[in-house]
C-alpha cells in the first residue's frame, strides 16, 4: 500500500482519470443533455485526454508544474464551463503545490482544498449551488479529517463522501450555467458536474486502492 | 440534417478558411490558429476591442471585426466557448498600449474563459476591462439582470463602443459607453424551430410545426412560454409587453430597433415584424431612430426572430450613425 | 407553415409597409400603390433603372433601389409578376428625360409585362430599353441561352449598370454595360428544401431530408439532377463543372464570385462553399476579385445556395467597386 | 336565336366567363400545379372577375372600348403569364373593334383572330407550342369557316374545335413558360392554358346557345 504519491503516480492518476471519463462518456452526455447542452461527455473525454497527454509528456519533478501543465491542457482543449473550472482548479493546485515532489494524504487534502478554491473563484459559486462543488467539497472535508490515514483508506472515504454529495446535489436547485434556466425544474435532476467531480475523486481512490 | 458541409467536425475551420479567403484585406489570424481572428488594420494607440463565443451565430461574433467596430475575436466550436489561451493570443495581438476591452455575452463558459484570459493578460502587463451583454429579458426577471443571457443586442455594444474607440479615446471611456449601451438595451426573441449542431447530427430539441417558443435563447435555452404559433402582430405585442416596462422605455424616448432573424426566417417576415413594432411604438409615443433589420445574431438554420430596443441620447445616436466597414456589416 | 406573418394574403403589403417605415429616407412609393417603389432621390438627367418581379426573394428585387444601383422597382405577389400598369407608373416616376432601362429576370410573365409596360411608356414618349438576366446554366443548355432563367447573377447587372448610370452617361451606354454583364455572368444553384408560398400554406414540392436537387430554380423549377445530399466540396465541384466551360472561364481570367444563400442556409455554410470555390478556381488559374457572400436572391425559407461567376475587365472592376447604398446593400 | 351580339350581350358574356372560371378554379389549379406553379385557378378567377366588373361598369356604346377596358382590368389584376396574354389579346381586339356597336358571326371570327394576334405577339408563340393558342386557333378557324352561320351554330362548332384543340395540345411538347422546364416530360400532360382558351370560347358558346 502506497504512503506517498510520486510524480509518476500522479501522471498515472491523470491517465486513469482519462480512462474513467471515456467509460462515462455516454452517461455524461445524457446527464448534461437533460439540463444543459449535452456536451459534457465530449468535453471531459477531450479535456482529460489532453491532461493525460500533458502529464505523460511532463519530464520534471515538480508536482506543481505537473498540475499546472494538466490544467493548461484542459483549458486549451475543453474550454466549456466544466473544462474551464477544472482547469482553473488544477492551475490553482499547481500554484499551491509548487516545488513538491511527492504527496502524502495530508497533501492530498490540501490539494483538494486548492482545487476547490480555484473552481469557486472562477465560478463565483459555493456549496449548495448544485455544481461540481457539491461532490468535491465533502470529499475534500473527508480527506482533511482523514489526513492521518493511509492514502487508500482516506481516498476510499473521500469517494464515498463524493458519491453522497452527488446524491445530495440532486435535491438542489441549479443557480449557475445553463441548468439555471430550468429554475425549480432542475430540482430532482442529477447534476452532471457533480458527477464529474466524483469521477475525479474516483480516479485517485481506484489508483491508491 | 440539411447542411452544405463536409465532415461535421471540420465545419468551423472550413468556414474560417472561407472567411480568410474572402476577406484577406480585412481580417487575418494570429498564432497560427484560424480561430484567433484579428483585424488586418490594428491602429497604433487605439483601445482594442475583442469579443468571442461559440460558432454558429454569424455574423456574430467575428463578423463585426473591422473598421469602426471590433479589433479581434476568438471563436470556439459550434455553440462552444473558445479557450482563455486563444483569447490571450488575440488580446496580445490587438493591444497597442491603450488596453483592451472585452465585450461578450453572459454565458458561464465564456465568462470564465474571458476572466481567465484577462488575468493572464494582466500578468503580461496588458490592461483589460470587460463589459457583458446580458439583455435578454426572457432569461431572468428584472432585479436579477446579472443572470440574463446576451443575445442580438450586443450588436449595439460593438457598434457604439467601436465607434468611440475609433475616436482614440481612453479605455475607461470606451468601457463606460459600452456599459451605457448594455444598460439601455433590451431584447426578446421567439423561436419557431430548432437548429442542428453539425457534430450532433440532429436537433437537440424540437418545436412542432405551428408552435413557437417565446423567449427562447439562441442556443435553444428554454423561454417564457410555449404555445401555438399566432399572428405576427400578436407575437410582437407580447414581446413588447415584456421589453417596454423592463427598462422602462417611455413616451418621448428615442430608440433604435433591431429586428434580428435567427437564420431561416426570411427578411420578408422581419419587415412584417418591424411594421408592427413601428406601429406600436408610435402609439406609445416612442420615436424610432435608425432601425436595423436583418440577420445580426443567428442560430444557424433556426427559424425565429428577436426584437431589441436601444434607448438613445445624442452621443449614442452620433456613435450609432458613424461609419463601419467589416466583412459582415457595412454602414456609410 | 413556420412563418411570422399575419393573414397570408396581406404578407406582401405588410412587408412593404415595414420597408417604408424602416427606410423613409431611401424609398417611397408612387401612385398610392405600395408595390410601386422608387428611390427617394431621383436624380435629374440620370438614366433611370427599373426592375421588378415576384415577392419572396428579398433582397431581390426592391432591396437594390438606392444610390449607385436602381431607381425603381415593382413587386408582385409572392412569386407573381407585377402588372404592366404598375411598371408604367414606376417608369414615369423615375424617368427624368434620359430614358429608362429595365433589368429583370427572364420569366415568361415578367417579360410580357415589361414588354407591355415598355410599349405603354413608349406611347407616352419615354425611351425604354431592356436587358434580361438569364444566367442559370442549369435551366437550358448552351446554345439555347435565351431560354435560361435569371437568378442571383442579376445582382451584378444592378450593381454595375447602376454604378455607370450614376456617372450620368447615356441610356445606350448603360444598356450596353448591362448587356456585357449579362453576357459574362453564369450561375448554378442547389436546393436542399422547398419553401412555402404563404397563401398556399404548404410547400409546392418537397425535397426529402438528406437529398438535394442541383440546378433547381428559385421558384422550385426542376433542376439537372436529384440525388443524395453529398459533401459540400463535391457539390461545388459539380456546379463549377457546369459553370466554367459554359462561358468559358479560363486560366488567367479575373472573376467576381457570388455565393448566394437561398434563405435558410446559414452564412457558415456559404463560407464553407466559398472556400472550395476559391480552392478550385485557384487550381484552374482563375483569379478571384471582390467576392460577395451572403443572401442576394432568396426563396424565402428555402435551404440551398447558388454560385455565380462574373468575368471582369478593368471597366467592370471599377464599376463593381464603386460605392452603393440601398436599404439592403451597402458598399463603401 | 341571336343574330347579333350587342354591347350588353358582350358584358353578359364577360360575366359568364367569370362564372365559368370560378367553376373551374380547382381544375385549373391542379392542371397548372402539374407543370407550372399552380396559380392559374387563382389568376383566372381574379382576372375575369375584374374583367366582368370593368364590363359592367362600362357605360358607352363602343365594343372596342369595352374589350379594351376588360383587357386592362385583367392586365392590372392578374399579371401572370396567362393573364397578361389574355389581356394583350383583348386589348388588341379593343383596337380592331374600335367603334363597333354590335357583332355578327363574321365580327366574332375577326375578334378571335385579333385576340390570337394579340396573344401571339405578346407571347412570341405559335400554334403547336402547347399553349392557349392550340385551343383558340382551331376555334378561330372554325368561326371563320362558319362566318355565315348563325351565332349559336358557329360558336357551338368553335367550342367543339377548341375542345379538340385541348386534346391535341396534350400530345405536344411545351416550349414556353414554366412547363418548358419539363421538356419532354410535358408530353402527355394537359396544358392548363389551352383549357383556359377553351373555357373562354365556352362562355360565348353557352351565351349564344
Ligand atoms: N459557476 C459555476 N461554478 C461551478 N460549477 C458550475 C458553474 N456553472 C456550471 N457549473 C457546473 O458545470 C456543469 C455543466 O458544465 P458544462 O457542460 O461544461 O457547461 P456548458 O456546456 O454549459 O459550458 C454543471 O452541471 C455544473 O455542475
Ligand atoms: N409564350 C407563351 N405564349 C402563349 N401561351 C403561353 C406562353 N407561355 C405560357 N403560355 C401558356 O400559359 C399557361 C401558364 O400560364 P400561367 O399559369 O399564368 O403561367 P405562370 O404562372 O408561369 O405565369 C401555359 O399553360 C401555356 O398555355
Ligand atoms: Mg454542457
Ligand atoms: Mg457546452
Ligand atoms: Mg401558373
Ligand atoms: Mg404564376
What report would you give on this structure?
The complex is a heterotetramer, with two copies of chain A (209 residues) and two copies of chain B (332 residues). Chain A is an all-alpha fold. Chain A has one domain: DhaL domain (Serine Threonine Protein Phosphatase 5, Tetratricopeptide repeat). The longest helix of chain A is centred in the last third of the chain and has 20 residues. The model of chain A has no long low-confidence stretch (mean pLDDT 96). By secondary structure, chain B is of the alpha/beta class. Chain B is 31% helix and 22% strand. In chain B, the strands form three sheets. In chain B, strands 7, 8, 9, 10, 11, 12 and 13 form a seven-stranded mixed beta sheet that branches. In chain B, strands 1-2-4-3-5-6 form a six-stranded mixed beta sheet, sandwiched between helices. Chain B is globular and about 50 Å long. The relative contact order of chain B is 0.14. The model of chain B has no long low-confidence stretch (mean pLDDT 97). Chains in contact: A-B, B-C, C-D. Chains B and C meet through helix 1, helix 6, helix 7 and strand 15 of B and helix 1, helix 6, helix 7 and strand 15 of C. Bound molecules: adenosine-5'-diphosphate (ADP) (2 copies) and magnesium ion (4 copies). The site of one magnesium ion has 6 residues of chain D, from loops. One adenosine-5'-diphosphate binds next to helix 3, helix 5, helix 6 and helix 9 of chain A.
